[in-house]
């Protein structure tokens, strides 16, 4: 069984992550545009506006998650929004998505964040089941959160 290696993406990873990000966007009915996906990721990374974690199996990047920093006024602390998560079709059902969720929680915890949250659509049953199985808690909206 191949292990999944998680790490923070660097600009050198953009050519490998951009097609995955494009596939993620197409899942949400956006037109395919790999150069646009790459430019968007590059701008977020260059400006320090997001953190991209990648999952590697057998040396290939097979999944990613993108986290955005936000702040909780009530908690007077930073939290993170897990905005994007995608695993290549051939790497699904091998624990990659769960590893990315756990890696995102570990990252938030290491950063001293008060929490980590995400949102998904009500009709995305596979994702919702994954989040619940990974220990995330659904509220009355579409938000899930995990204590870090």
TrEMBL record:
**Protein name listed in UniProt:** Acetyltransferase, GNAT family
InterPro entries recorded:
Acyl_CoA_acyltransferase (IPR016181), Bact_Acetyltransf (IPR050832), GNAT_dom (IPR000182)
Q: What is the lineage of its organism?
A: Bacteria, Pseudomonadati, Pseudomonadota, Gammaproteobacteria, Lysobacterales
Q: Where is the N-acetyltransferase domain?
A: 4-148
The answer, when asked if Amino-acid biosynthesis is one of the entry's keywords, is no
UniProt keyword terms in alphabetical order:
Acyltransferase, Transferase
GO MF annotation, one: acyltransferase activity, transferring groups other than amino-acyl groups
Write down the Pfam families for this protein, in alphabetical order: Acetyltransf_1
Q: Which Gene3D superfamilies match?
A: 3.40.630.30
| SUPFAM superfamilies in alphabetical order | Acyl-CoA N-acyltransferases (Nat)
Q: Where are the transmembrane segments?
A: none
**Where does this protein come from, organism-wise?**
Lysobacter dokdonensis DS-58
Report if keyword Iron is assigned.
no
